[in-house]
Amino acid sequence: TLEENAIMVGVVKNITEYGAFIDLGGIDGLLHITDMSWGRVNHPNELFQVGDEVKVKVLKFDRENERVSLGLKQIQEDPWLTVHHDFAVATKVSGKVVSLTDYGAFIELVPGVEGLIHVSEMSWTKRVKHPSKLVNIGDPVEAIVLDIDYDAKRISLGMKQAQPNPWTLLGNKYPVGAVIRGQVRNITDFGIFVGIEDGIDGLVHISDLSWTTRVKHPSEMFEKGDEVEAVVLNIDVDNERFSLGIKQLHEDPWERIPNAYPRGARVPGKITKITDFGAFAEIEPGIEGLIHVSEIADEHVDDPRSYLKPGDEKEVMIIDIDQDERKIGLSIKAVAKAEQGIDYRAYLAQSVPSSQVSSSNGNASMGTLGDALKGKFDKNEE
Question: For residue range 302-345, what is the model confidence (pLDDT) as tens digits?
Fold first, then answer.
């Protein structure tokens, strides 16, 4: 008898994109595509052909207009009623890819129950722009259940969680202090990225490129594809950051500079740069000091460029060293005074205002000269 909730047998009479018309014996009913299966149906012809016999349930019967709505999935139990038994958060599940979107892949776990693997949960190391880069429709996948929303009938899955997180293994493979070798994969304003493993790069910050060279941009020193060695400085697993250092491959020269160049020492220097307030001279590769305009000659110097030019080699005297600030004060005038038999301590005592010089055992304290020159260095940095 044709009435609501009745189970009847009919024959598929016609198939459209939105459903199938079923001949119930003198009257046709519509089995809509959404009522065919608890699972995903892209087109009714996936399930039926014209002439197929099918058992259906009458969902609604409009006698006046002779319209009948039919359901097939309603004969079967809703699979979501047993999801809490079949699946649990943190368990591993298997399924197949049934749909791809820009933001993820839908996985059919059982007919009628799908889970979403968001694009951010697909790989530990790769930046996946689109799910199709990793999976295709029909592919079998394993995933971990991350969350279940029973009211909204949504399951969140993670594909990368089914595999070990390579970031947690890095600490054992690359302990702090270890030397690694890799290829420069990218160069930015703030450093270079060095390939460690597939999808994992280490960052050498611009401040860790050199002890002595003031690097304005890493591209001054490196190009993409360069093979480099670096020291492991830190691995931050939570934030997925791998910090490397290149300058740490060598000892910091400033650890020995104060002993290697005591105040009063006379050393050869090469003029590298001229400014309005003085000149910079290199006393060893990468180590420069400032010859202030007042330390170039005995007479008053208005323009250092009239006395010096880049490339000139001059003997200079170390008159101040600030290890913390990594600055060296040099003097050409002090060398000339020494040639006249004037001790550099006496020269400095005369050169620095008496209010800035303190004495101990009859000798001028050299610590005050750093204060006198500090402003000159700072002006240069600006």
Answer: 999 999 999 999 999 999 999 888 899 999 999 998 888 888 77
Amino acid type, 310 = P
CA 217 – CA 188 distance, rounded (Å): 8
Q: Are 174 and 182 in contact (CB under 8 A)?
A: no
Distance CA 297, CA 331 (A): 9
Nearest in space to 16 (alpha carbons), one of 50, 40, 62: 50
Q: What is the pTM of this model?
A: 0.56
- The model's pLDDT over 206-222, given as tens digits with 9 standing for 90+, comes to 999 998 888 899 999 99
The phi, psi pair for 380, rounded to 5°, reads: -65, -40
Strand partners, 101: 104
Backbone angles phi, psi at 168, to 5 degrees: -75, -20
Residue 258, classed as helix, strand or coil, is helix
Neighbouring residues of 129: CB distance < 8 A, sequence distance ≥ 6: 119
